[in-house]
Amino acid sequence: MKIKSQKDFWSGVMFMAVGIAFAWGATSYSFGASARPGPGYFPFGLGVLLALLGALILFSALTIETDDGEPVGRIAWRPLSILTAAVVLFGLTLPSLGMVVALPLMIVVSALAGDEFHWGEAIASSVVLTVASWFIFIWGLGLTIPLWPKFIG
Predict the structure, then answer these.
(1) 3-state class (DSSP) for residue 40
(2) Residue 105 C-beta-side C-alpha neighbours within 13 Å
(3) Do the Cβ atoms of 62 and 4 come closer than 8 Å?
(4) Disulfide: which of 35, 79, 93, 114 matches 102 by Cβ 3.0-4.6 Å?
(5) What is the pLDDT along the chain (153 residues), one digit of tens a residue?
(6) Cross-strand pairs, 32
(7) Which residue, among 57, 18, 67, 25, has the nearest Cα to 43 in the 3D structure?
(8) Cα separations (Å) of 80 from 101, 107, 111?
């Protein structure tokens, strides 16, 4: 069998591997029932959906012809490092600085990974995503995520 798109092939393999790993990891938690799902219900479902998406992408990589085979390029280490650092920074700052500071900080640092950084776009994204995150996670789901920095209260 010939790989007709290397990019799609390897992204399909990656999606399938991550999806299977999440679904498998979720089996150690209680599933509950559809009416009262347990902690393993949602990650298992997402893992299965991600693995199915990966299988679909993998199938298309093996069946749909491309002009040049879409070879995989070099790994972009700078953006990968910046995005990883932004997520680690968010995890470290959330407990003490709260979501109002940690989330915009992560978004601005993440925006630095791109080729076209604009302060206005980064700040607008920060405001919209912080408000949406507050609305969904704190107000809607009632999660106990610190909103403000500890020194404010």
Answers:
(1) coil
(2) 16
(3) yes
(4) 93
(5) 788 889 999 999 999 999 999 999 999 998 888 888 888 889 999 999 999 999 999 999 999 888 887 788 888 999 999 999 999 999 999 999 999 999 999 999 999 999 999 999 999 999 999 999 999 999 988 889 999 999 886
(6) 37
(7) 25
(8) 23, 14, 12
Question: In Å, how far are 11, 19, 42, 51 from 54, measured between CA atoms?
Answer: 7, 8, 18, 5
122 φ, ψ to 5°? -65, -40
Q: Is the pTM of this model over 0.90?
A: no
Query: In whole angstroms, what is the distance from residue 117 CA to residue 101 CA?
Result: 20
User: 3-state SS of the chain: helix, strand, coil percent to 5?
Assistant: 65, 0, 35
How many helices (DSSP H) and strands (DSSP E) are in the chain?
A: 5, 0
Are 14 and 38 contacting, i.e. CB atoms less than 8 angstroms apart?
A: no
At 80, list the tokens.
Answer: 């990968």
**Dihedral pair phi/psi, residue 77, rounded to 5°:** -65, -40
